[in-house]
Amino acid sequence: MTWSIVARDPETGHFGIAVASRFFAVGAAVPHIKGRVGAVATQAFVSPLYGTDGLKLLEDGKSPDEIIATLTARDDGRRQRQFHLIDARGRNAAYTGEICVDWAGHLVDDNVSVAGNMLAGPQVIAETLRVYKERIAAGAPLAERLLDAMDAGEAAGGDKRGKQSAAMVLYRDQDYPWLRINADDHTDPLGELRRLYAVAQERFLHVAETMPTRENPHGMIERRVIDEKIAALEAAREAEGRPSASFATPWKP
Fold it and tell me: By percentage, how much of the chain surpasses pLDDT 90?
């Protein structure tokens, strides 16, 4: 029902998953991440337990290959499942059941994997991976690598049934996401993700930098600092004549 990319930034240890499908709210089913632990994407005839239990097993120190063996061995539905995962050390693995709907398959590379089913063909995941690696070489941020890679997969044919939803989830080193955006029911879900990412850059991601962490449970206490930064960014955007990407109503003082 889907194709997805699971990635770890080797320089920062941050994790990201991007996914798209002709299926409603794919972001509610496929991506599972925990900071400093790992990332799992579970899809095809989806089992959420591959995500939840996969993260628990990663936290217990099991390797991705061991986790695939453990989770598929206990599941009589494994022949129609697909999942791929990566751990905090960059070890990764993928599994595609033999009766997943064609075209179905996966590719695994250093700190990244791509998997899909019900696709237009193998070129979808091949292009997704190629562009992701190309964008690494260009020094693009993790979020932009994922979005560009998914766009390339869509241009190569994407889900053979069409388009409906997409999601991108990014974790740094905390138990909560740094960013989670979803286009649950849209004619251009990947385009909508790009708009949402642009909206996030206007305010949300700056606020995210101030949130409490394990190392600093207070976060930024002085709100004035971030308010002034956001106001300056908005003033610069308006001076350049760039409209906001957001659909929000005007700010009420």
Answer: 91
The answer to whether residue 32 is domain-embedded is yes
CB 48 within 8 A of CB 26: no
Beta bridge partners of 95: 83
Domain of residue 155 covers 2-187
Burial class of residue 251 (count of CB atoms within 10 Å of its CB; 0-12, 13-18, 19+)? exposed
Residue from 235, 175, 181 nearest 205 by CA: 181
Span 147-191, pLDDT tens digits: 999 999 999 999 999 999 999 999 999 999 999 999 999 999 999
Structure confidence by residue, pLDDT tens digits, 103-127: 999 999 999 999 999 999 999 999 9
248, part of any domain: no
Give the pair of three-digit tokens for residue 107.
């590719």
What is the rounded distance in angstroms from the CA atom of residue 147 to the CA atom of residue 170? 12
Here the CATH number for the domain that contains residue 106 is 3.60.20.10
Count of domains for the chain: 1
